[in-house]
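Re: duplicated header lines in exported structure tokens

Our pipeline writes sequence and tokens for each protein into one text file. With two proteins the header for the second block appears twice in some exports. Here is an export where it did not happen, for reference. First protein block:
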Amino acid sequence: MDLTVGAIDACRKTCTDVGSLPHNGFVSTIHDSTPLTVINPSDSTLGRHLARRLVQIGATDVFSVPGDFNLTLLDHLVAEPGLNLIGCCNELNAGYAADGYARSRGVGACVVTFTVGGLSVLNAIAGAYSENLPVICIVGGPNSNDYGSNRILHHTIGLPDFSQELRCFQTVTCFQALLNNLEDAHELIDTAISTALKESKPVYISVGCNLPAIPHPTFSREPVPFSLNPRLSNQMGLEAAVEAAAEFLNKAVKPVLVGGPKLRVSKASNAFVELADTCGYALAVMPSAKGLVPEHHPHFIGTYWGAVSTAFCAEIVESADAYLFAGPIFNDYSSVGYSLLIKKEKAIIVQPDRVVIANGPAFGCVLMKDFLRALAKRIKRNTTAYENYHRIYVPEGHPLKCEPNEALRVNILFQHIQKMLSSDTAVIAETGDSWFNCQKLNLPKGCGYEFQMQYGSIGWSVGATLGYAQAAQNKRVIACIGDGSFQVTAQDVSTMLRCEQRTIIFLINNGGYTIEVEIHDGPYNVIKNWNYTGLVDAIHNGEGKCWTTKVRYEEELIEAINTATGDKKDCLCFIEVIVHKDDTSKELLEWGSRVSAANSRPPNPQ
């Protein structure tokens, strides 16, 4: 069946699965088979065509920063019914917002100006590339007459060759479209957008500043909805891979399943759960896959993260005689400084289009979703690993209760955040100790969860929260952000207010870059303390719905949460939580020392 990208009405339905396309597996579906209408000649322009395409694929909110090269293009985006242009405070946050939006809606878009805007958004686009998110990055480029003219333009580095921006984007996007004439603009726009959807990676579209408003015959009709042919497995390879994997797993005594972050790009989360239902194996996730696998599954045993795993999870995974990893990424962070105790000869590694069985055969052109579903029909049920887990499992203790007016501890904070979670909420975890504290939250069915582990750019969460909340308006977002990260991107709390978002932000004020302290301490990890609630009050400036408070004790925290979820449930709520600078999770202490050891390995002998 073709993957169809189509009608506006379908695009307005919000996706409720975290980091995936809507339930039917489509970005959107066209239901109206009436002939495509002829467009008014004055609207038959490049700008309106691009706007219509964005609406068609579901990017009905576009995050932007104006600049002189993109102003005419922005006029045409504003004029498109069904498209909401959201002005951000800077390009980096616009890119992060498109990233967060894509995690919920399946695709995101941002618009910036040439070079000064493009290079500012580049970091966010690189993060989206690392996380396999289809983000349409649109740049207002120079006048088409300036290409090859040997002129020097503003917003450049002062050379007549102003291809610097394009060359930078070539390494962090899967397709680059340079629109400097109208003859091939239609084809390039459609190729760029369809490539982003097929590859699940960002693309770059540069639009000459003199082109968006000019009518052209290629834009004279409503654009034909995309029909993207799905990728298919090599059937012989699929059958061979399934046969080899089934033989390998069926002779194991205590096999386990571990889900990885590439379940998202493979759209294989459901197939993975179907396999887990069938086989009865103990089921774990890698840290960067949290939120992609339901934690209410009866055989779920937690997060496998080596030495900082959920209690009893690593013991079950690492003692297994066979493990199937679906979509893993083994980097220095996810492997806790390369210290995982897993052996290649015991592992089946399933990547989006490849299966590797232990030290033996590898099978290419085999899609993960197809493989997992076919394997489920060939696998023998084996609950040994889960039974072992059930025997050794001891429920986690509760944090020591805070005495009245005792300084609030981080573990108490997250105990109360846990109670806030439901199918109507989503958690955004910033890079830092929030990674570890949020990882320990038990996600109820339907609760969203996002963080950026592969790229790990501090400040990501402010823009991502803006974008995710805009895309998933049926959920209340709970963002856990450290003070150091917040200082990087704080401005776009302003945009959250303009968009009337109801997010709850927990600003964890511990006076510095705590995650860096635990890797390698130094005076550079201490930051200037801000009056964070005062800053947000100044940004609020009496416009929109906003409520702020500082909490130092558990009693104040309880009151703040009751207010945020009660009287102020329709407001943006900003809760500054003041904690001791050395109050960190035990997992960060262990992880930091191991990552530090990996970073400080001496050079190999020459």
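Second protein block, exported in the same file:
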Amino acid sequence: MATVQQLVAYGFLLYVGWRLLRSTRRRSPLDNIPGPKSDSYMLGNLGQIFDRRGAWTFQKNLVQRYGRLVAIHGLFNSTDLYTYDPRAFHSIFVKDQDVFEESAIFLTCFMLFMGPGLLATLGDQHRRQRKMLNPLFSAKHLREMTPLFNNVVHRLHDAIASRVEGGTQELDILGWMGRTALELIGQGGLGYSFDPLTEDVADEFAENLKEYFPVLASLGLPVRQSLPYLIKIGPAWFRRKVTQLIPYKPAHRMREISDIIDARSTEIINAKKAAIQQGDEALKQQVGEGKDIISVLLRANMVASEEDRLPDKEVIAQVSTLVFAAMDTTSNALARILQLLALHPDIQQKLREELTHARDDGTGKLRDLDYDEVMELPYLDAICRETLRLYPPVRVLVRIVQKDGILPLSSPIIARDGSLIESVPVGPGQRIVTDLEAINRDKELWGEDAEEWKPERWMNPLPRALEDAHIPGVYSHVMTFICGARACIGFKFSQLEMKVVLSTLLPTLKFDLADKPIFWNAAGIVFPSVGEESAKPEMPMMVTRLV
């Protein structure tokens, strides 16, 4: 066992040596780009960008001091780039996607522990998967699923209302939003129920998915950096045997998580296949009545051409991919909206009036809204757009340059030597950190009030500078759901979820701040905790029943 550990250590030392040799290279054009001093030889500035507490201040300083393109220090003081330039974003995410790709570490982690799903694949394989999945996230399909959304969220409403029956109570709103997001993707995505909501029931699959990122982080930097190379050593059975023998608990736990996710995903797919073979009546007896994403995908896959058909392992991998992608992003965004409404009670009341009026059935009772009705409510839409603009659940994304290319800029930057830089040459291995939050708050595009939460900005014409910038995002001139071939495929699903939850809860429930400090942690997916010291995701709020 020591031998295997030593091999990993030796491999990491070779990597360090290679980086040291690269650090002695001749000067590069990137050296002329302004940027901060290195904070650490090993991590450069990356430790500051990905620090859950200090990242906010560090990134704000980058924006204020250096602007849209910054030279930062990466691993072992290599020169990386940090940008929120609109034209650079168009090149990275749309025009030159083959030049700027996901990192091998990101892809390997998802491939190794969740299988070849949408997050783990590239090129033709990724395009084939999106081609099969895209229709399932269309407005047409979501219209059919809206009654299912309403039914799930009514259970959420009843669960919360029952807990505040006797008066105002403190509840962990993040926890409730997370449970609801899981059940919505369970029923709407998989035709599977994880959580009745009206009672507390643990689910092994869901709990293990939630542990994925924390356990992955505990593997340590050397192991994560080595994964793309380690998976090439021998067949899968050999690597599994080695991890069983290594006395390293995080590796054992990651293997357990992967096994549980794969077993439950396979079970769900096999049950769906059996129901499909039994006919429409059998499907109607299942959760989702056969309208869920996986059921529709399986039926479409059965009649697809050989060229487009997905193999079983790719279909199975979509199960965990869908749940993983849909769980924390939307639930954390909903928690943020409810916190902002508590901070602005006048806006909360104005939204409540819009929702109550829209849901009035003419007799004073509240009715459910269909897809088009809930999506077109102007003030609700403005609040969701403004929150997602100002507070994207994912702050930054990293891309790795695959081949020589040019990164263009919207406007020149002033170099260290005083010259103007209009574009930057990049080469293989270059790391590009793209700041989604910074481009969403760019004062040159949004105006001087860009960092203020103002839902009414969406009720008026947007700034001409913003229109002219041609932000490539798939949603409302913002990069929250990014764009291009790797844009968030479920952004309409997420929008519908947020709007159904808010339109169901707010007419009869009032949300206020609890007497506890809430800190938003700059993790891979931003999450709230009680105070800066705690890393436990939670957001207590005071909830009052109005009706």
